[in-house]
Design a protein that fits this description.
The chain is an alpha+beta fold. It has one domain (3-97). Helix content is 41%, strand content 17%. The protein contains three helices and four strands, in the order αβββααβ. The longest helix has 15 residues, at 45-59.
Length: 98
């Protein structure tokens, strides 16, 4: 098992869920990773849906990645959830799906 796959397995086993940010303005929560995501964060599964929905509302219509990231961080903070980013060298979630 690669180091990346081991890290992914650990996150899932610990009850974390991914929130993916896409360059088309979408923010999606779920353990299934999509190689089209430009950024991926992990947070406790219990907060994932509420955080992602709030981030979508706060980001507004047709936001860019920076706006979506800021909205996601703000929503996570309001819900008391800690976001764990995928390291920059692994920013393409397709790497974690191998």
């Amino acid at each position: 098992m690669t180091k990346d796959r081991a890290a992914l397995a650990y996150l899932i086993a610990s009850g974390a869920t991914a929130i993916s940010i896409f360059d088309d303005g979408a923010i999606k929560a779920g353990a299934k990773l999509d190689g089209r995501a430009v950024m991926v964060f992990w947070l406790p599964e219990a907060a994932a849906l509420a955080v992602s929905r709030q981030a979508c509302r706060e980001a507004g219509e047709a936001p860019d990645v920076a706006v979506m990231t800021a909205a996601l961080r703000a929503a996570a903070a309001e819900h008391g959830a800690t976001l764990t980013p995928v390291p920059a060298e692994n920013s393409n979630p397709a790497i974690l799906m191998m």
